[in-house]
Design brief:
The chain is of the alpha/beta class. The protein contains four helices and five strands. The protein has two domains: about 1-35; about 65-130, Nucleotidyltransferase, domain 5 (2-Layer Sandwich).
């Protein structure tokens, strides 16, 4: 009888579930997802984009620069001007030279400003692709 009592005693000890490895695994996954998340910084202004039938979806990891109807150049919610475009592009493409640049241009933005912004983007990083954001019909 003493053997049978010790077997039952061992079974009751094994019924407890140790969840500390599961908690460790959840924290490791959480840290992994936080580190690998890409944050896209919006330009911070609303523009009335042109409609194009040939519009494509571009990748999420890109640089977004806006040109307003008044000809202001905006990045990250603040005006940077045409002169500031080259510095922003150089800083953001220091690690990833092939990061695409997307211009969100208003319909009534001056063409001269848009051309100068594209020129500054190409001077800052000739490898990057410069695209103009449009709306799908």
């Amino acid at each position: 009888m003493s053997k049978r009592g010790s077997i039952l005693q061992d079974d009751s000890d094994m019924s407890d579930i140790n969840i500390s490895p599961m908690i460790d695994m959840v924290f490791i996954l959480l840290i992994f997802f936080i580190v690998t998340t890409v944050f896209v910084q919006e330009p911070g202004v609303e523009v009335d984009r042109e409609i194009a039938f040939s519009s494509l979806n571009l990748e999420k990891n890109s640089i977004l620069i806006a040109v307003t109807p008044e000809g202001d150049v905006v990045y990250g919610g603040g005006p940077i001007g045409i002169v500031g475009v080259r510095g922003v592009i150089k800083r953001l493409t220091a690690k990833n030279k092939t990061m695409p640049i997307i211009l969100q241009v208003d319909r009534s933005a001056p063409a001269g400003v848009v051309i100068r912004v594209i020129d500054e983007c190409k001077l800052a990083n000739p490898i990057s692709v410069v695209s103009i954001s449009t709306e799908s019909p």
